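Figure-free illustration: sequence to structure, shown twice.
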Amino acid sequence: MSRVGKQPISVPQGVDVSIKGADMQVKGPKGQLALSYRSDLVDVAVHGDEILVTRKSEVREAMALHGLTRSLVANAVAGVTDGYSKNLDLFGVGYRAESNGRQLTLNIGYSHVVDYMAPEGIDITVGPAISGAQARIVVSGIDKQMVGQVAADIRQKRKPDPYKGKGIRYENEVIHWKAGKSAVS
């Protein structure tokens, strides 16, 4: 039995879960999410204020999907209740970031301005600098996977440089510094 999959998911007050076939709708105070699962291998049932995920057979694929389905449902419930956010720090002399709704404008050392448009349901805000950074970019939304993907896309615009540390980093990302060229005497 999957250790993650057999744990029940508690449904907080104000969250409505409806299941039709292999599709699931989770509605909460922050919004609603749709989720689909493999109904031929895994069964999802709502009992009172708990959601239980069980597998229908002992096939390897069903065992693999048992814990995955439980985690996806738990992430959907947590997303519509509290939401998710990722923090990115901008390091570099002259680097700037500005946000206007879902539009992010970055000045990150290129000869041109880099614009990024976030997908629907994702909010981007730029806050004050923290711990030596030029700015802090906060990506937030109710879909955990989408928040992580948008944060990764923004970081990809200027990855951290291992020699000087300039670029866009996650909040607690550790940079493995490299030594530069040393003079031969």
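We now fold a second protein in the same way, so the two outputs can be compared directly.
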Amino acid sequence: MTIRKIQPDDNAAVATCIRKAITEFGVPTTGTAYEDPETDAMYEAYQGAREIYYVIEENGEVVGGAGIKKLHNNTDNVCELQKMYFLAKIRGKGYGKQLFAKCLDAAKEFGYSQCYIETTPQFKAAIHIYESFGFEHLEKPLGNTGHYSCDIWMLKTL
């Protein structure tokens, strides 16, 4: 298993990981990353300052990913963990925790003061990971990501 920065040729594989996970868990396809315009162009979407997207590669195949980017429509120094999804065959192997830690390290290196997450109740294992890393639940969303089907919001001071 390798965690590396996304490359242009990874776009289709990452989009597949995102959409498969969303449908497998029964998450709505509207108001989520499923229909997000960035999903089909992830490499291009993470080329700005203070943002990065990592992929997990296993045996030469992209099997998941996650990224850090400034929280959209928020003027504070807050980043968002974005599009953390994995194919079924690697879930439960501990890769998520490793990738999550790498993303938080990047957020700190970029100088963000807080990290925000939006998710849905279907992703119980991910929520448990977020809580174990010190993320706290919020009463309402921050910013305006356009992911209106996400109804769990969490925040951590870095």
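Summary for the second example: The chain has one domain: 2-157.
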